[in-house]
Design a protein that fits this description.
Elements: H1 2-32, E1 36-37, E2 49-55, E3 64-74, H2 80-83, E4 90-95, E5 103-104, E6 108-114, E7 128-141, E8 149-152, E9 157-167, E10 170-182, E11 195-196, E12 214-221, E13 236-243, E14 253-260, E15 270-276, E16 293-294, E17 300-305, E18 310-314, E19 319-322, E20 330-335, E21 341-348, E22 355-358, E23 366-372, E24 379-386, H3 399-426
Parallel strand pairs: 2-12, 13-24
Antiparallel strand pairs: 1-10, 2-6, 3-4, 3-7, 5-6, 7-9, 8-12, 9-10, 10-11, 13-19, 14-18, 14-20, 15-17, 15-19, 16-17, 20-23, 21-22, 21-24
């Protein structure tokens, strides 16, 4: 017996170490997807986080987003009668406005907001495990979006679990947990089934310091409209003026133009541009561009795949007008060098003060790059001045008068020479 006790005492530290290691493993596994605990005095809470992302420079809309929080199960039971006993959390909303604080980087603007505690008003009938499904409504409210606005809604879904416990003074939410049910960009590199922290602790203004039950929407707005002949519907205007008494006003000048979409806008984007004359009439000449497209209203336009440089020809009085460039997009434009013409340029960004640039001599190209598209006026006005011609040679219409002057001058010179010789002979 004593021998066995000694053996047990000898092995006890090893057993204790094994138990501790097992507990450590269990704690680690549990911690990775732990419910977040509260107390009766400070019950566990859960909230929804909303990220509204848009291209830099885009005005924040007065938009309200709705989230459905629907009963899924109670203590593992999913019958309709059981679900009917669960507290109705219903729809919750998050509203945005132009005054909201945003977190900006070079190209993207993000506003982060979150709801209050989803369980703050819930009255539970008994202790147990209550599971809800959380999803975003695929529509915006609060205002009617215009034709030049667009939303990409989050398709993420989560399950939200409340562990309700009997306390000294009644029921309270002892813990909460959340799990990804449907994946989208809101979840980053996560996978379906991953657990996230749904608690609203921290500062919602700071990226990453809020509930991880996140829904991310992309909002965009074009700087123009849908009618190219309407002066107020132009997102970008590139114009051509030719000056000089001997300038060729019928000559076409070549422009390399590229429009880039904002980084936050997903997928392939193609923009539309129209050539207009001085009276805002749409020009359909293939001299401007060989392969014109036709829009839904039967008007000819040039298709600009975002990020692709295109060559368009413009002559005096013509303009290339984009109607659907996103706010936050950017563009490059360069006019090719033209013999005997000196180029100058005045461009406006987002309705600001015009900026001028020019070439010191003729026969040089001129352009600007990576110019941002703002919500207000965006334009680039190119002017080409023809070099000055000085007329030379004899004008035939004046020949008789010139001959009279020559004869008179010759007679005078002959008279002077004769007089000089006579005076010299007397001496």
């Amino acid at each position: 017996m004593k021998k066995r006790l000694k053996e047990l005492q000898r092995r006890l530290p090893a057993f204790a170490l094994a138990v501790v290691m097992c507990m450590g493993t269990a704690v680690s596994a549990f911690a990775a997807g732990d419910p977040i605990y509260g107390t009766e005095a400070a019950p566990a809470r859960a909230a929804i986080t909303k990220k509204l992302t848009m291209p830099i420079g885009t005005p924040t809309p007065d938009a309200t987003f709705t989230f459905h929080v629907l009963p899924d199960s109670v203590d593992g039971r999913t019958a309709a009668a059981d679900l009917a006993t669960m507290p109705v959390l219903g729809d919750v909303t998050i509203a945005f406005s132009a005054s909201d604080t945003s977190v900006d980087n070079l190209n993207t603007k993000t506003i982060v907001k979150q709801t209050g505690d989803l369980f703050s008003s819930a009255v539970f009938p008994h202790a147990g495990k209550y599971v809800y499904k959380v999803a975003e409504d695929q529509a915006v409210s609060g205002y009617l979006p215009a034709a030049n606005e667009a939303y990409i809604f989050s398709h993420a879904e989560y399950t939200l679990t409340a562990y309700v416990k009997n306390g000294t003074n009644g029921l309270y939410v002892a813990a909460v947990a959340s799990q990804i049910a449907v994946l989208d960009s809101s979840n980053g590199t996560s996978e379906i089934g991953d657990k996230v922290d749904p608690t609203p602790d921290g500062d919602p203004v700071i990226i990453g310091d809020y509930s991880k039950m996140i829904f991310t929407n992309i909002y965009s707005k074009t700087a123009g409209g849908v009618e190219p002949t309407d002066p107020t519907d132009k997102a970008l205007t590139l114009s051509k003026t030719v000056t000089g008494d001997y300038a060729d006003l019928t000559k076409y000048f070549a422009f390399d133009v590229a429009a880039r979409k904002p980084e936050v806008i997903p997928g392939v984007v193609t923009y539309m541009a129209y050539v207009l004359d001085g009276s805002d009439n749409i020009v359909t000449s293939t001299e401007n561009y060989a392969t014109l497209q036709t829009d839904g209203n039967g008007k000819s336009y040039i298709s600009f795949p975002a990020g692709t440089s295109m060559t368009v020809n413009l002559k005096h009085g013509q303009r290339l007008v984009f109607t659907d460039l996103h706010i936050g997009a950017s563009y490059d434009v360069t006019e090719a060098a033209v013999q005997n013409y000196t180029a100058s340029l005045e461009y406006v960004v987002n309705g600001g003060i015009p900026t001028s640039t020019s070439n010191a001599a003729a026969d040089l190209q001129l352009g600007i790059n990576n110019i941002l598209i703002g919500a207000n006026q965006n334009s680039a006005a190119f002017t080409n001045a023809y070099w000055t011609i000085t007329p030379t040679g004899v004008v035939i219409n004046n020949l008789p008068f010139i001959m009279i002057l020559i004869l008179a001058a010759g007679s005078f010179m002959a008279f002077v020479v004769v007089k000089s010789r006579k005076k010299h002979s007397r001496v």
